[in-house]
Design brief:
The chain is built from 11 helices and 4 strands. With 353 residues, the protein is mostly helical. The chain has a two-stranded antiparallel sheet with strand order 1-2. A two-stranded antiparallel ribbon has the order 3-4. Helix 1 (11-41) crosses helix 3 (98-132) and helix 6 (216-241) crosses helix 7 (254-266). The protein is globular and about 60 Å long.
């Protein structure tokens, strides 16, 4: 089924509305982003302690500066690119179809990935550094190996220290207690570094330009899936709620935009969460050394930590994604409606000089 592309917003309207929506969304939902990333960075191995959320404060906004800049830039690319792709793929009658909407969403997600990756990497580094604590490396607590207690029948006295032959091997004293294998560290994390510029400088110093493109491929996959599901769901629901025969077809109130954004954003969380976990691990400070590739990262998580680790941080991401989509679309609809109404008004009433 096709639908017309009536009442298209201008590029200027889409840009201003997108930037405003991106800044508002990133600021209001960032505490959920902090919790999600913190949970995804935690290694879920035997002996590892559960993540304890810190007291609410400015720590929950660590990395917001990078995300805010990236969100504003991403919003421009997302809205304007999706609008441009949709218009480009419309037929001669300026009508589009569901497959074309999906294609436009995929292309939009791939395009915005080039903008997202550097800012996502900076954000993850900043949160990873905060998690490290006062000069302590972010490492997995070693697995304690419990050994059997010393048998009561073990040899005592001089016989216990006498040379043992092969025939006397039953009298060999076995170690008892707990063995703590050494933890493998990939280097200390300098927690004295702070601020956006300080972390950018440290990232380039330690890892070079590669630090800003870590996790590129899983980010592309995640963004493409996010945009495709979100925009497809939103467009379908918007088309269902509005009357194509109405001259105001495509216009939604802020409340309707909020509701549709909530539904469309929540639809993609469970399906893309494993990709998001792999992306976060690869973008950690020691991600390059610990995980050589996306496939190896996924394999190590599955073997060492279990399949449920792929959904670490699902709840905070669901809250963030639901609110983000709702805020973005509600703000976008509100701002675009105001700008469209303002553009149709003249500076002086008719008949006045």
């Amino acid at each position: 089924m096709s639908r017309p592309l009536n009442n298209e917003d201008s590029l200027l309207t889409a840009t201003l509305a997108g930037v405003t929506a991106g800044l508002v969304q990133s600021s209001l939902t960032y505490p959920f982003e902090f919790m999600k990333t913190s949970l995804q960075l935690r290694r879920n191995l035997p002996g590892a302690k559960a993540w304890t959320p810190p007291d609410f404060g400015k720590v929950y906004f660590t990395g917001l500066s990078a995300v805010a800049i990236g969100a504003a830039t991403k919003a421009v690319v997302r809205v304007s690119t999706f609008t441009a792709f949709s218009k480009f793929m419309a037929d001669e009658d300026n009508r589009t179809t569901a497959p074309r909407v999906v294609t436009a969403g995929l292309l939009t997600g791939i395009t915005e990935s080039f903008i997202v990756v550097p800012f996502e990497s900076i954000k993850t580094t900043m949160i990873n550094r905060v998690q490290a604590g006062a000069g302590k490396p972010v490492a997995v607590p070693p697995t304690e190996i419990k050994l059997p207690e010393k048998p009561e029948t073990a040899a005592k006295g001089p016989a216990a220290t006498a040379p043992v032959t092969i025939k006397d091997k039953k009298r060999v004293a076995r170690p008892t207690g707990t063995i703590k294998p050494p933890t493998v560290h990939y280097g200390q994390i300098d927690t004295s570094v702070s601020g956006l510029l300080g972390n950018i400088k440290e990232m380039y110093k330690d890892r070079g330009l590669r630090a800003f493109v870590q996790g590129f491929f899983p980010t592309v996959a995640r963004q493409a899936a996010n945009s495709a599901v979100r925009f497809t769901t939103y467009s379908a629901l918007k088309h269902w709620l509005t009357n194509p025969e109405d001259s105001e077809y495509g216009r939604l109130s802020a409340a309707s935009g909020f509701g549709l954004g909530l539904l469309s954003s929540g639809a993609m969380v469970l399906a893309t969460q494993p990709i998001d976990v792999v992306k976060t691990r690869l973008q950690s400070i020691h991600g390059i050394k610990e995980y050589r590739s996306s496939l190896q990262c996924a394999y190590k998580i599955f073997v060492e930590e279990g399949v449920m680790t792929f959904w670490a941080g699902t709840l905070p991401r669901f809250c963030k994604a639901g609110l983000s989509g709702a805020i973005i679309f509600a703000t976008y609809e509100s701002v675009s409606n105001v700008l469209n109404a303002a553009s149709q008004k003249k500076p002086f009433p008719p008949g006045e000089e």
